[in-house]
Amino acid sequence: NTEMVQITLKKCRIICPMHDCNPRGASHPTTTKLSYCYHQQSNPHTASPHTHKHHTMHTVWVRLNAVVFFGLTVLLCLSILAALSKIGHTRRYQPKIHKLALNNLRSIKNHGGVDRALLSFDLHADMNPAFHWNIKQIFVYVVATYKTDTNPKNQVVLWDRIIEASSPASSKILKEDNVFVKYGLIDQGNELRGKEVELSLMWDHMPLTGTLYMGQQAEGTASKFTLPAEYL
To answer: Is the model more confident about 54 or about 123?
Structure first.
Protein backbone atom coordinates (compact mmCIF):
# COMPACT_ATOMS: atom_id res chain seq x y z
CA ASN A 1 0.00 0.00 0.00
CA THR A 2 1.64 3.25 -1.12
CA GLU A 3 0.02 5.46 1.52
CA MET A 4 1.15 3.20 4.38
CA VAL A 5 4.70 3.22 3.05
CA GLN A 6 4.74 7.03 2.93
CA ILE A 7 3.44 7.29 6.51
CA THR A 8 6.09 4.80 7.64
CA LEU A 9 8.79 6.84 5.89
CA LYS A 10 7.63 10.04 7.60
CA LYS A 11 7.72 8.38 11.03
CA CYS A 12 11.15 7.02 10.35
CA ARG A 13 12.48 10.43 9.34
CA ILE A 14 11.10 12.03 12.51
CA ILE A 15 12.65 9.37 14.73
CA CYS A 16 15.99 9.40 12.92
CA PRO A 17 16.45 12.90 11.50
CA MET A 18 20.27 12.66 11.45
CA HIS A 19 20.54 9.36 9.54
CA ASP A 20 19.62 8.23 6.07
CA CYS A 21 16.74 5.80 6.52
CA ASN A 22 16.42 5.15 2.81
CA PRO A 23 19.58 3.34 1.74
CA ARG A 24 19.85 3.11 -1.99
CA GLY A 25 19.63 -0.27 -3.60
CA ALA A 26 17.49 -1.88 -0.89
CA SER A 27 15.22 -4.58 -2.24
CA HIS A 28 12.63 -4.05 0.47
CA PRO A 29 12.63 -0.35 1.23
CA THR A 30 9.87 -0.47 3.80
CA THR A 31 11.39 -3.30 5.84
CA THR A 32 14.89 -1.89 5.56
CA LYS A 33 13.87 1.56 6.70
CA LEU A 34 12.00 0.26 9.70
CA SER A 35 14.76 -2.11 10.80
CA TYR A 36 17.44 0.54 10.29
CA CYS A 37 15.55 3.11 12.35
CA TYR A 38 14.85 0.60 15.10
CA HIS A 39 18.55 -0.26 15.21
CA GLN A 40 19.53 3.38 15.52
CA GLN A 41 17.09 3.99 18.39
CA SER A 42 17.97 0.82 20.32
CA ASN A 43 21.75 1.23 20.13
CA PRO A 44 22.89 3.94 22.59
CA HIS A 45 26.38 4.12 21.05
CA THR A 46 25.13 5.03 17.59
CA ALA A 47 22.07 7.05 18.58
CA SER A 48 21.84 10.69 17.68
CA PRO A 49 23.40 13.11 20.20
CA HIS A 50 20.19 15.12 20.14
CA THR A 51 18.34 12.30 21.92
CA HIS A 52 20.64 12.28 25.00
CA LYS A 53 19.96 14.49 28.01
CA HIS A 54 22.99 16.41 29.25
CA HIS A 55 23.53 16.50 33.07
CA THR A 56 25.58 19.46 34.28
CA MET A 57 27.12 19.83 37.76
CA HIS A 58 26.21 22.79 39.96
CA THR A 59 28.71 25.63 39.83
CA VAL A 60 30.59 27.00 42.84
CA TRP A 61 28.35 30.07 42.96
CA VAL A 62 25.19 27.97 43.08
CA ARG A 63 26.53 25.91 45.95
CA LEU A 64 27.76 29.02 47.78
CA ASN A 65 24.37 30.68 47.34
CA ALA A 66 22.62 27.65 48.86
CA VAL A 67 25.00 27.56 51.84
CA VAL A 68 24.66 31.29 52.53
CA PHE A 69 20.87 31.30 52.42
CA PHE A 70 20.71 28.20 54.59
CA GLY A 71 22.94 29.94 57.14
CA LEU A 72 20.77 33.07 57.05
CA THR A 73 17.65 30.98 57.61
CA VAL A 74 19.20 29.27 60.63
CA LEU A 75 20.34 32.65 62.00
CA LEU A 76 16.84 34.07 61.60
CA CYS A 77 15.28 31.14 63.46
CA LEU A 78 17.78 31.47 66.30
CA SER A 79 17.12 35.21 66.55
CA ILE A 80 13.38 34.62 66.81
CA LEU A 81 13.91 32.03 69.56
CA ALA A 82 16.21 34.42 71.43
CA ALA A 83 13.62 37.21 71.24
CA LEU A 84 10.88 34.87 72.49
CA SER A 85 13.01 33.78 75.44
CA LYS A 86 12.91 37.34 76.83
CA ILE A 87 9.12 37.57 76.88
CA GLY A 88 7.90 38.08 80.43
CA HIS A 89 11.40 38.44 81.89
CA THR A 90 11.32 42.23 81.95
CA ARG A 91 8.13 42.27 83.98
CA ARG A 92 8.98 39.47 86.40
CA TYR A 93 12.52 40.64 87.16
CA GLN A 94 12.72 44.31 88.13
CA PRO A 95 15.68 46.24 89.53
CA LYS A 96 15.75 46.63 93.29
CA ILE A 97 15.51 50.34 94.06
CA HIS A 98 16.44 51.03 97.66
CA LYS A 99 16.68 54.81 97.59
CA LEU A 100 16.15 57.71 95.22
CA ALA A 101 15.68 61.07 96.93
CA LEU A 102 16.73 64.71 96.85
CA ASN A 103 19.96 65.45 98.67
CA ASN A 104 20.47 69.17 98.16
CA LEU A 105 18.86 71.93 96.10
CA ARG A 106 21.70 74.09 94.82
CA SER A 107 19.78 76.84 93.06
CA ILE A 108 16.63 77.84 91.21
CA LYS A 109 16.94 80.80 88.87
CA ASN A 110 15.39 82.38 85.82
CA HIS A 111 17.70 82.31 82.83
CA GLY A 112 16.67 83.53 79.39
CA GLY A 113 12.99 83.66 80.35
CA VAL A 114 12.85 80.06 81.68
CA ASP A 115 13.23 78.64 85.18
CA ARG A 116 16.14 76.32 85.90
CA ALA A 117 16.86 74.35 89.05
CA LEU A 118 20.14 72.64 89.92
CA LEU A 119 20.19 69.90 92.55
CA SER A 120 21.85 66.70 93.75
CA PHE A 121 20.28 63.37 94.78
CA ASP A 122 21.05 59.99 96.33
CA LEU A 123 20.57 56.81 94.31
CA HIS A 124 20.88 53.25 95.63
CA ALA A 125 19.70 50.52 93.25
CA ASP A 126 20.65 47.00 92.18
CA MET A 127 20.24 46.53 88.43
CA ASN A 128 21.44 42.89 88.31
CA PRO A 129 17.94 41.30 88.33
CA ALA A 130 16.97 43.25 85.21
CA PHE A 131 19.66 41.62 83.07
CA HIS A 132 19.05 38.66 80.77
CA TRP A 133 21.42 36.71 78.52
CA ASN A 134 19.73 38.34 75.52
CA ILE A 135 20.25 41.89 76.87
CA LYS A 136 23.28 43.78 75.60
CA GLN A 137 22.97 46.82 77.87
CA ILE A 138 20.57 48.81 80.02
CA PHE A 139 20.14 52.57 79.79
CA VAL A 140 19.30 53.95 83.25
CA TYR A 141 18.06 57.49 83.87
CA VAL A 142 16.51 59.63 86.62
CA VAL A 143 13.40 61.57 85.62
CA ALA A 144 11.82 64.56 87.34
CA THR A 145 8.04 64.85 86.86
CA TYR A 146 5.92 67.88 87.78
CA LYS A 147 2.76 69.75 86.76
CA THR A 148 2.22 73.32 85.66
CA ASP A 149 -0.74 75.37 84.51
CA THR A 150 0.60 75.35 80.96
CA ASN A 151 1.47 71.64 80.76
CA PRO A 152 -0.35 69.10 82.93
CA LYS A 153 2.64 66.73 82.79
CA ASN A 154 6.32 67.62 82.45
CA GLN A 155 9.15 65.06 82.46
CA VAL A 156 12.81 66.06 82.45
CA VAL A 157 15.81 63.70 82.45
CA LEU A 158 18.33 64.79 85.10
CA TRP A 159 20.90 61.99 85.02
CA ASP A 160 21.68 58.86 82.99
CA ARG A 161 24.10 55.97 82.71
CA ILE A 162 24.69 53.00 80.40
CA ILE A 163 25.36 49.65 82.09
CA GLU A 164 26.84 46.93 79.87
CA ALA A 165 25.90 43.29 80.30
CA SER A 166 29.59 42.38 80.11
CA SER A 167 30.36 44.58 83.15
CA PRO A 168 30.97 42.85 86.49
CA ALA A 169 28.02 42.43 88.85
CA SER A 170 29.46 45.02 91.26
CA SER A 171 29.29 47.75 88.60
CA LYS A 172 25.60 47.02 88.10
CA ILE A 173 24.89 48.11 91.67
CA LEU A 174 24.29 51.86 91.75
CA LYS A 175 25.30 53.47 95.02
CA GLU A 176 25.55 57.17 94.37
CA ASP A 177 25.37 59.77 97.14
CA ASN A 178 25.00 63.49 96.57
CA VAL A 179 25.14 63.06 92.79
CA PHE A 180 24.95 66.35 90.93
CA VAL A 181 22.58 66.33 87.98
CA LYS A 182 23.99 66.04 84.46
CA TYR A 183 21.14 68.07 83.01
CA GLY A 184 19.38 70.93 84.77
CA LEU A 185 15.71 70.86 85.67
CA ILE A 186 14.53 73.41 83.11
CA ASP A 187 10.93 74.46 82.59
CA GLN A 188 9.49 75.65 79.28
CA GLY A 189 8.45 78.88 80.98
CA ASN A 190 8.77 80.45 84.40
CA GLU A 191 6.38 78.18 86.32
CA LEU A 192 8.90 76.01 88.18
CA ARG A 193 8.78 77.81 91.53
CA GLY A 194 6.65 76.26 94.25
CA LYS A 195 5.96 73.09 92.25
CA GLU A 196 6.01 69.55 93.63
CA VAL A 197 8.60 67.40 91.85
CA GLU A 198 8.69 63.60 91.78
CA LEU A 199 11.99 61.75 91.22
CA SER A 200 11.73 58.30 89.62
CA LEU A 201 14.10 55.80 88.06
CA MET A 202 13.52 54.52 84.52
CA TRP A 203 15.46 52.13 82.31
CA ASP A 204 15.51 50.83 78.74
CA HIS A 205 16.41 47.23 77.89
CA MET A 206 18.51 46.99 74.73
CA PRO A 207 18.54 43.32 73.65
CA LEU A 208 20.88 41.57 71.26
CA THR A 209 17.83 40.65 69.20
CA GLY A 210 14.18 41.50 69.74
CA THR A 211 12.18 44.54 70.70
CA LEU A 212 13.19 47.32 73.08
CA TYR A 213 11.50 47.54 76.46
CA MET A 214 11.16 50.51 78.81
CA GLY A 215 10.69 49.89 82.53
CA GLN A 216 10.12 52.30 85.37
CA GLN A 217 9.89 52.49 89.10
CA ALA A 218 6.66 51.17 90.58
CA GLU A 219 3.98 53.81 90.93
CA GLY A 220 3.68 55.19 94.43
CA THR A 221 7.28 54.40 95.42
CA ALA A 222 8.94 57.52 93.95
CA SER A 223 10.14 60.28 96.26
CA LYS A 224 8.78 63.84 96.12
CA PHE A 225 9.93 67.29 97.14
CA THR A 226 8.63 70.85 96.72
CA LEU A 227 10.66 73.64 95.14
CA PRO A 228 10.83 77.00 96.94
CA ALA A 229 8.42 79.74 95.94
CA GLU A 230 11.25 82.23 95.41
CA TYR A 231 14.43 82.16 93.36
CA LEU A 232 17.60 81.03 95.12
So the answer is: 123
